[in-house]
Amino acid sequence: MPWYQANDAGWNPQWYEWYFRRVPVGAAIRARETAAVHALVAPVIGAEQHVLEIGPGTGQYTIWLATRCRQVTTVDASPEMLRYLVARLQRASVTNVEVRPGRLPGPLELDGLYDGVLAVGVLNYVDDVDAALRTLVAALRPGGWAVVTMPSRSLEGRIYQLAETLGRRRIGLYTVDEARDRLQRAGIAVHRVEVAGLSRGGVTIVLAGLRVG
Ligand SMILES: C[S@@+](CC[C@H](N)C(=O)[O-])C[C@H]1O[C@@H](n2cnc3c(N)ncnc32)[C@H](O)[C@@H]1O
Fold first, then answer.
1. What's the CA-to-centroid distance between 83 and ligand 1, angstroms?
2. Pocket lining: 106 vs ligand 1, CB cutoff 6 Å
3. Of ligand 1's atoms, which has the minimum distance to the CA of residue 60?
């Protein structure tokens, strides 16, 4: 639909950082999401792993990943976000992260198979989530881990959806069961699910699982 922005358009990294660091509601949502993502990634990440992060944005999770594994490859659709991330990694003297352009549902230009894939806040914007999940699973070695988020079909999720609509972004909302089923259908055996946000229904469903086969 022409009124909505393309996935790679209109991202403003400075505004994004300001909202999630300085605006109290943004910072509170971010703190809860970060706690859930760290809790699900920490048990499966390993020092010798090569991890793929899809949709790293400004790098909220990238630097954290880089301190916990051998190599991180990141893929993002937005040139503005990629430029910001490269500069941030240089400032932080992080040398084990590779930054590439790419867009779900793919195909993505990747080298080989990864030990784990992290995708936080990116499936939100993809029209064909099942195709995007198939691309994500195809990038994983058998038994490799995936931690992904999807927006919750809750009151908080609907408020988020309205805010995104005003910003000309279309997002999908999911129940926990729908989100889990989609991952399972794509070939991920889901072993843990958390819901993060300011309310009981939360705004973000965080799912962890392992590639089957
Ligand atoms: C909401 S931000 C999340 C960034 C980061 N993961 C975080 O949690 O702070 C979404 C990111 O996904 C990227 N993105 C959106 N749609 C995408 C797509 N179809 N393929 C790849 N990246 C996409 C955007 O450019 C942006 O950097």
1. 13
2. no
3. 9
Instruction: Find the 199 Cα to ligand 1 centroid distance in Å.
Output: 24
List alpha helices for 23-171, DSSP H: 24-41, 62-66, 79-91, 129-138, 155-166
Q: Which residues contact 53 (CB under 8 A, 6 or more apart)?
A: 61, 62, 65, 72, 73, 74, 75, 117, 118, 119
The response to whether residue 81 sits with its C-beta less than 6 Å from ligand 1 reads yes
pTM value > 0.90: yes
pLDDT of residue 8 exceeding 90, the answer is: no
Q: Map out the domains of the chain with their CATH numbers.
A: 13-105+112-211 (3.40.50.150)
Pocket test for ligand 1, best of 32, 125, 171 (most atoms within 8 A of CB): 125
Report pLDDT digits (tens) over 56-99.
Answer: 999 999 999 999 999 999 999 999 999 999 999 999 999 999 99
- Mean pLDDT score across all residues of the chain: 96
In short, whether 56's Cβ falls inside 6 Å of ligand 1 is: yes
Nearest-angstrom CA–CA distance, 46 and 207? 18
201 CA from centroid of ligand 1 (Å):
23
**How many whole angstroms from 79 Cα to the centroid of ligand 1?**
11
Counting Cβ atoms within 10 Å, is residue 152 exposed (0-12), middle (13-18) or buried (19+)?
buried
